[in-house]
UniProtKB/TrEMBL annotation:
GO terms for biological process: isopentenyl diphosphate biosynthetic process, mevalonate pathway. Its EC number is 2.7.1.36. Pfam families: GHMP_kinases_C, GHMP_kinases_N. This is mevalonate kinase. Belongs to the GHMP kinase family. Mevalonate kinase subfamily. It is found in: Cytoplasm. Its main location: cytoplasm. It comes from the Bacteria.
Amino acid sequence: MTLPTSVEGVPEDRRGVSVGIGRAHAKAILLGEHAVVYGAPALALPVPQLTVTAWARRSGRGAPGGVSFTSAGSPSRPMVAQASEGLRRLVAGFTALTGADGGPHLDVAVDATIPPGRGLGSSAACARAVVRALADLHRLDLTEDETFDLVQTAENVAHGRSSGVDARTVGASAPLLFRGGEVQELSIGCDGLFVIADSGAMGRTKDAVALLRDGFAREDGARERFVRRASRLTEEARQALAGGRPEELGSRLTHYHDLLRGAGLSTGAVDALVDAALAAGGLGAKITGGGLGGCAIVLTRPDRAPEVVRGLHAAGAAQTWTVPLGGPAEDAL
């Protein structure tokens, strides 16, 4: 049997029986990266334009209880290769949770449009899509908490200690606030667009985490100052977002970028994107994600978005995507 290349390739009466289908999407962190693992709040944004679809089917080939992974689309190939151990543990966790141990061999295929290593949640989205495909295959209705726990199994293998922000946001339909172990939808009182710009370079989350940790170890009180500053900026941004103050929200984004850049977590390419966005009329801009590469995120008014996008491409952006605040997704520009 050849796995389908789209959902439309699976007959309706076979969905959830011979082939299970699962989906997830990308995410971007607005503020709070790195500090969130030390108890600070974080704000995260779903990016529905960038998707992962997974298919799972039972196979007569291969050892019972085993699993094989394949991928379609060039962006997903390195992602699946890097995440394969985490995905295998995820499948083991799924079978233990559902009592499906010892069943037929599983073939799992993943197709992704999320560029890997950019801080956009590619590994978490891949894991969530696989969980949902397995649940669909077995006709199981997993709770969101059960899905989250399984995704975290893969995330902790891929990234070490994972905050859970990615695992929650890749399945969310609205921007989220993470605070004190609780998650809730953000109140949005602002109009505007976020523009995400890909620097073209893969980020290095584990290296960034180690760099920050080493910096904290060298200077007494450094961690506390970093977390305190991050917490204040994130809370002020949350209030500005809810209160309809886009200029204030934008300034907090830029100040958070300065915090991360001061810790050595940005790069010249990302700094150039931030500077270009601000020069083109963006209200604020920062690196998003783990750092040492990856993407910048920009807040702009809708009427300034074309100019901001042109400025980002002129500054070296490999590609850009726009995400309206509280509205439907737009096509990549």
